[in-house]
Specification:
With 720 residues, the chain is mainly beta. The protein has no helices and 60 strands. A hairpin with a 5-residue loop joins β3 and β4 (32-37).
């Protein structure tokens, strides 16, 4: 048993590769590139040295923001990605850290190679030549592919490979500003021999054994882009419950185009069927509205597209407003002043709504004192207003606004307004004793505002901290009785809530508002949740449990238990923590729990107190630890370690060493005495008579006057 000084060694790292790499090359001293085919398995290993044994973390940069590769702490130093995808290419970093000096960081660039199927599109132009005596036809065959590395393109007519300007009729070039890699084959002034079969072959020169890909097109004198015709108007208005069929007919296109229907927003509705170019929707609903797109593609020219804006008639949310005399800035109804009544419904199509006004059950008689504005510019679109000039007693009564879709089977909507001497603007207030509501987390809260006035408008609730939405997720909540019910309240719902009168179904004036404070009580949040406390025997430690958060933020009671038994403890008054002093001995070692309550609930801190020694830390970087004995087929192993925080507890007297042979599971136990101990001291023991080529698991436990400490384990493997 020997010892030598080793304070600690900073982490060092090196990346080595395994897995299905095509090639790994060092571009220069700093840049290492690992090339792999998409879909194969990536394996990178980070070899580390340093004492104590460093922790390894793999991280990644570049690639895409939505990378599936999360930061992981891979403690076996190996990063493995099955079926690697192109977005997972980029720079991978191995960071080794042991708290000594600066962390070691090494990186390698992973280049993922792939070759997608190419896409071939055909574009034709016809131009007049020499004063329209004859027409010249030019065809562009455009081949696009996504690949890494960039692809090489080979064009063929039949079996013949075409080269740039091999005859006057052929031109091959790369267009500017294209996405992916693109090559264009231009056939100028089309000749009979140009009607043939063309193949675009793309190649990444067999890197990572990726084979070439091909796409072929048969060019004929009938090759043409798709043409579509719709059986319905571009805007189609229907009644709910109708069955409708939209026909999208192919009027041209060679090769035969494919016709596809789509809907935005969202998919084509489930109550529909697509047959060829026909789209049928049964028992149509309001939510089936939207844009229906019919698209035809045959890779010649641009895709043909026709769009139908389908509107399903609907009417909902009839509202009214009473606007007192605006010119006189009045907020009340007064005889001799002007008065405006407005009426609005949310409808599709909005502009087709017809409004009618009735007074006391009879159609309103229009005069120079009674005006009707169909589109009131001061109010939401398509709002109808009835204006009474110079209000008289005879104008008092019940006014009815009816909204109708003419010629459609949609029920009318109506709204009634009473105008009398009792019609007064609203006031809002919080009932006595209700301005602060205190509830416990998880329970139900009821916030209340009282509205007076005739008519009584709805009440709109919002949070005063403007940016925060209501618990329902919306920014405002409308209630008709002024009461806001909150279920299963959480601490985040604490704060000030504002109630205000709506400007509809009542007076169109500045809203009246009031505030209600909600306090949500919740149990304490304490720290530490768990703490491992080590101290030498006959020395004392102070355990402190602190309240970080809570409502109310005050310790009402604190209770200490030792190994489950209640301890007599003086109460703390109005503090945010509780403390306990412990004199460490064998009898006082164990588990201490402090439970802090604020009268709403309780939370606990847990302390494990002992004089146990910390574990030893094995030294993995011993040069040539294996000593072979050629004659006897045995070997010896030089085991080295330092002791973690030796001064935290009583002096270490000896180590218990257990050696297990992995294949046989038999064990040998010995004790190693300790003469000298200090932090960072490298201790050494030679394990003799180990059998070649067996592996062994070693357990090492420090022993003090308190007893056994924490055990460290490692595996020893025989290597030549």
């Amino acid at each position: 048993f020997t010892s030598s000084s080793l304070s600690a060694a900073p982490a060092q790292a090196q990346i080595i590769h395994a897995g299905q790499a095509c090639v790994v090359k060092d571009d220069n001293i700093s840049e290492r590139v690992y090339t792999i085919r998409e879909g194969d398995t990536l394996v990178l290993q980070c070899l580390i040295t340093g004492h104590p044994r460093p922790q390894v973390r793999w991280t990644k940069t570049a690639g895409s923001a939505s990378d599936k590769f999360q930061e992981t702490s891979v403690l076996n130093e190996t990063l493995r990605i099955e079926k690697i995808q192109r977005l997972q290419g980029g720079r991978y970093y191995c960071k080794a850290e042991n708290g000594v000096g600066v962390p070691a960081i090494k990186s390698i660039r992973v280049d993922v190679q792939y070759l997608d199927e190419p896409v071939l599109t055909i574009h034709q132009t016809i131009s007049d030549v020499r004063g329209s005596f004859y027409q010249e036809k030019t065809v562009f065959l455009r081949c696009t592919v996504n690949s890494n590395p960039p692809a090489r393109f080979i064009w063929k007519r039949g079996a013949e490979t075409l080269s740039h300007s091999q005859d006057n009729g052929v031109d091959i070039y790369e267009p500017l500003y294209t996405q992916g890699e693109t090559k264009v084959l231009k056939l100028k002034n089309l000749r009979p021999q140009d009607y043939a079969s063309y193949t675009c072959q793309v190649s990444v020169r067999n890197v990572c054994s990726i084979p070439d890909k091909f796409i072929t097109f048969q060019l004929t004198n009938t090759t043409a882009p798709p043409v579509l015709k719709l059986s319905v108007n571009e805007t189609l208005v229907v009644n709910p419950g109708d069955n409708i069929t939209m026909q999208c007919s192919l009027m041209g296109g060679d090769p035969q185009p494919e016709v596809v229907w789509s809907h935005s927003p969202g998919p084509v509705p489930p109550n529909s069927l697509v047959q060829g170019g026909n789209l049928t929707i049964w028992r149509i609903r309001v939510e089936d509205s939207g844009y229906y797109n019919c698209t035809a593609i045959n890779n010649v020219g641009n895709p043909a597209k026709k769009t139908v804006n389908l509107l399903v008639r609907s009417m909902k949310n009839a509202t009214f407003q009473i606007t007192p005399d605006v010119i006189k800035e009045s907020e009340t109804i007064q005889l001799g002043q002007d008065l405006k009544l407005s009426c609005h419904v949310d409808a599709v199509p909005q502009e087709k709504v017809v409004y009618s006004w009735f007074k006391n059950g009879k159609p309103a008689r229009f005069s120079d004192r009674l005006l009707i504005t169909r589109n009131d510019p001061e109010l939401p679109p398509v709002t109808c207003s009835l204006e009474i000039i110079d209000l008289r007693f005879s104008d008092y009564g019940t006014y009815l606004c009816v909204a109708t879709f003419q010629g459609a089977f949609i029920p009318d909507l109506s709204v009634e307004v009473n105008i009398s001497s009792e019609t007064v603007p609203p006031t809002i207030s919080v009932p006595k004793g209700q301005s602060t509501i205190t509830v416990r987390e998880g329970s139900r809260a009821e916030l209340q505002c009282e509205v007076r006035g005739k008519p009584k408008p709805p009440v709109i609730w919002s949070r005063v901290d403007k940016e925060t939405p209501m618990p329902s997720g919306t920014m405002t909540v409308e209630t008709y009785d002024g009461k806001l019910y909150l279920e299963n309240v959480t601490r985040e719902m604490s704060g000030t809530y504002k109630c205000q009168t709506a400007r509809y179904n009542g007076f169109n004036i500045r809203p009246r508002e009031a505030l209600v404070q909600l306090n949500v009580q919740f149990p304490p949040v304490v720290e530490p949740a768990f703490q491992d406390v080590r101290q030498g025997m006959r020395r004392s430690v102070t355990l402190r449990c602190t309240m970080l958060k809570g409502s109310p933020m005050k310790v009402a009671t604190s209770v200490w238990h030792f190994n489950g038994t209640l301890l007599a403890q003086p109460l703390t008054e109005q503090q945010d923590y509780s403390e306990l002093k412990v004199d460490v001995s064998r009898e006082t070692s164990g588990s201490y729990e402090c439970s802090i309550s604020n009268d709403v609930g309780a939370s606990s801190c847990l302390f494990q107190v002992s004089a146990r020694a910390y574990s030893p830390e094995f030294y993995y970087d011993t040069p040539n630890p294996i000593l072979s004995q050629k004659q006897s087929k045995n070997y010896s192993y030089v085991l080295q370690w330092t002791q973690k925080e030796p001064d935290a507890v009583d002096p270490i007297l000896k180590y218990r060493l257990e050696v297990w042979q992995l294949s046989q599971r038999n064990t040998i136990q010995t004790f190693i005495p300790v003469k000298k101990m200090e932090k960072g001291l490298l201790l050494e023991h030679i394990l003799p008579n180990l059998k070649v080529p067996q592996s062994y698991e070693v357990f090492l436990t420090p022993i003090t006057s308190f007893g056994a400490g924490d055990t460290a384990a490692r595996i020893i493997q025989y290597m030549e």
